Amino acid sequence: MVKDNDITFKYEELNGKFNFRVAALIENKDKVLLQKSAKDDYYCLIGGRVAFCENTKIALIREIEEETGVK
Questions:
Q1: What is the pLDDT of residues 14-62, one digit of tens each?
Q2: Cα distances (angstroms) measured from residue 35 to each of 24, 44, 54
């Protein structure tokens, strides 16, 4: 979900947009943690958009908490 303070730029002339995002590569031995939404048929890394004035470390911690429910 896009929030008002997410760092997103629309490029109308190119019919595209840029989203500033972070993602976590979480490994344990020979396994990697991925997530899959019930509405999608693919897996991805945990992550999401970075908010304006939010540093990437804080954004990544917030996204991991939001996506996993683990602090």
A1: 889 899 999 999 999 999 999 998 999 999 999 999 999 999 999 999 9
A2: 11, 5, 23
Q: Are 24 and 63 in contact (CB under 8 A)?
A: yes
DSSP-based three-state secondary structure for 19: strand
User: What is the amino acid identity at position 70?
Assistant: V
SS3 65: helix
Beta-carbon neighbour count of residue 63 at 10 Å? 20
Q: Are 46 and 33 in contact (CB under 8 A)?
A: yes
16: left (phi over 0), alpha (psi -120 to 50) or beta: beta
In the 8-state DSSP scheme, what is residue 13?
A: G
